[in-house]
Design a protein that fits this description.
Order of helices and strands: HHHHHHHHHHHHH
Number of strands: 0
Low-confidence stretches: none
Number of domains: 2
CATH topology of the largest domain: Tetracycline Repressor, domain 2
Number of helices: 13
Structural class: mainly alpha
Mean pLDDT: 89
CATH superfamily of the largest domain: Tetracycline Repressor, domain 2
CATH architecture of the largest domain: Orthogonal Bundle
Length: 278
């Protein structure tokens, strides 16, 4: 399930995100029940998504959590589209915006990536909000500002820094998504990863007895990698959550090695030097 941000009324959404002069809805609704306001509605939406996933999110579900009707929410948040934008930006505000660079940019970026990893696994529904069209809220910009401050002074051209930041965000997001899906697969299907792999691995050998001859490089790699994984942890399943986290660690280290090499050599990539297409 992919949800595209920014699908509601543009002016209303931006006013709500930034609490601009056009913003209305901070007034609590009077009555015997606790008053409603935008922040209360957004917090309830986050709770619904955290507990039940993005598919369960609706104005009706949020209203039910607040013991209100869906119609009562529209005074404050016009639709689910604006609610998703507000939820996404609100949870991003949980993340730190300051990292100690005393030990160097690499340690700071590693700490930031660890925090982002934990954040995505804490709120896996965020991974379903597409990055093709950003929310453009203060929480989102605060995270970008944080990484720019860490990498902005490392000595690379601004255009290259911008591209490196895009790589870092998408790498952490992509690897966290794999781990989140590992966690969701068992409850969603009723079959654990171990059971799934055990059945299909046996069947693969049955239907493709010549697998190693047909895919020799892959077979050799998997044989050595599986043996190493078993030696490390005693577990033989290479695609489970633990392996996804190890891949995250290895991949992040390689990306940071590449940035470090670029900083030390000062060599720009061909794409950085290419003229822009009009």
């Amino acid at each position: 399930m992919v949800v595209f941000a920014g699908q509601g009324d543009a002016r209303r959404s931006m006013a709500l995100l930034w609490r601009s002069a056009d913003f209305r809805g901070t007034r609590a609704m009077p009555g015997p029940k606790p008053g409603l306001d935008v922040d209360t509605i957004v917090a309830a939406g986050i709770a619904v998504a955290d507990e039940h996933g993005m598919a369960a999110l609706s104005m009706r579900a949020v209203g039910a959590r607040l013991e209100r009707t869906a119609m009562s929410l529209y005074t404050y948040v016009p639709s689910k589209d604006e609610l998703v934008d507000l939820m996404h930006d609100r949870v991003l505000a949980e993340l730190p915006t300051e990292y100690d660079t005393g030990a160097g940019w690499r340690a700071a970026i590693t700490a930031w990536a660890d925090d982002m990893w934990a954040f995505y696994l804490r709120h896996p529904w965020v991974l379903q909000v597409s990055q093709a069209r950003p929310v453009l809220g203060p929480g989102e910009y605060a995270q970008l500002e944080t990484v720019v401050r860490i990498l902005g002074g490392i000595g690379l051209e601004p255009l290259r820094v911008r591209r490196l930041i895009a790589v870092l965000f998408q790498f952490v997001r992509g690897m966290a998504r794999v781990t989140a899906e590992h966690r969701q697969a068992g409850p969603a299907t009723g079959v654990s990863d171990e059971e799934w792999w055990a059945v299909r691995s046996a069947l693969l050998m049955e239907v493709a007895p010549d697998f190693a001859e047909r895919f020799p490089a892959l077979a050799a790699l998997e044989s050595h990698a599986t043996a190493a994984a078993e030696e490390e942890s005693g577990e033989a399943a290479p695609y489970m959550e633990r392996e996804a986290e190890e891949a995250f660690r290895v991949g992040l280290a390689l990306i940071l090695d590449g940035i470090d090499a670029a900083v030390r050599t000062g060599v720009s990539s061909p794409a950085d030097d290419a003229p822009s297409t009009p």
